[in-house]
Specification:
Number of domains: 2
Distance between the termini: 67 Å
CATH superfamily of the largest domain: Calycin beta-barrel core domain
CATH topology of the largest domain: Lipocalin
Helix content: 10-25%
Strand content: over 45%
CATH architecture of the largest domain: Beta Barrel
CATH class of the largest domain: Mainly Beta
Shape: globular
Radius of gyration: 22 Å
Strand order of the largest sheet: 1-2-3-4-5-6-7-8-9-10
């Protein structure tokens, strides 16, 4: 009987040792090692070219517009990524006025920051934070009546990576708030092939 008890204790100790080798999974179901790519930094999952569309809605769900978009994300180092965004009308022509944004995402001492410049030189500065695998970005300018919050995440699917961009914003004083969603795939992903 004592031998069985000691064998049980040895077996239990072995299970504890093995279990400690696995990453802990928080309530969200995402292992911490997935939340941050240690070798490539927080922006590594977004690296590369992405094509898709951004749909804008009124708060009641009425669609306002759809614009095709191409996003290029290039990490220069683990804490710095350059971004180029081109928006196009649904027929493929470049929006008028030509809407192209360039900028960068930065991580400095754990804080995230994104700076995007429009074609007219206006600068949009976002403060960011991580939420599991996603990044939440926010900017506000009370003088202009502008406020925008968005959530970005790259989700691995059977059809290839899916870049999601969801948010809400008001862009001028007195203007109503809009909701937007963007879905992007890599141009060379399986789902984009005929």
């Amino acid at each position: 009987m004592i031998r069985v008890f000691f064998l049980g204790l040895i077996g239990l100790a072995a299970l504890v040792v093995i279990a400690r080798q696995f990453p802990a999974v928080p309530d969200g179901g995402i292992a911490p090692s997935e939340a941050l790519d240690q070798t490539g930094g927080p922006f590594a999952r977004m690296d590369g070219d992405w094509e898709g569309a951004v749909v804008t809605y009124l708060p009641d769900g009425t669609p306002l517009s759809t614009q095709k978009s191409r996003r290029q994300h290039d990490s220069m180092s683990p804490g710095l990524q350059n971004i180029t965004i081109t928006m196009r009308q649904p027929d493929g022509t470049t929006a008028t006025p030509k809407v192209i944004m360039t900028g960068r995402s930065l991580e400095q001492q754990g804080a995230l920051r994104r700076e995007l410049s429009g074609p007219d030189g206006t600068l949009a500065v976002y403060a960011g934070r991580r939420a599991g695998l996603a990044m939440i970005w926010h900017r506000r300018d009370d003088a202009a009546g502008l406020e925008e919050t968005l959530r970005e995440e790259v989700i691995r699917t059977a059809q290839g990576d899916l870049y999601t961009l969801d948010g809400t914003g008001s862009y001028e004083k007195g203007r109503r708030r809009v909701i937007f969603e963007g879905r992007f795939r890599r141009p060379d992903s399986e789902s984009d092939r005929p």
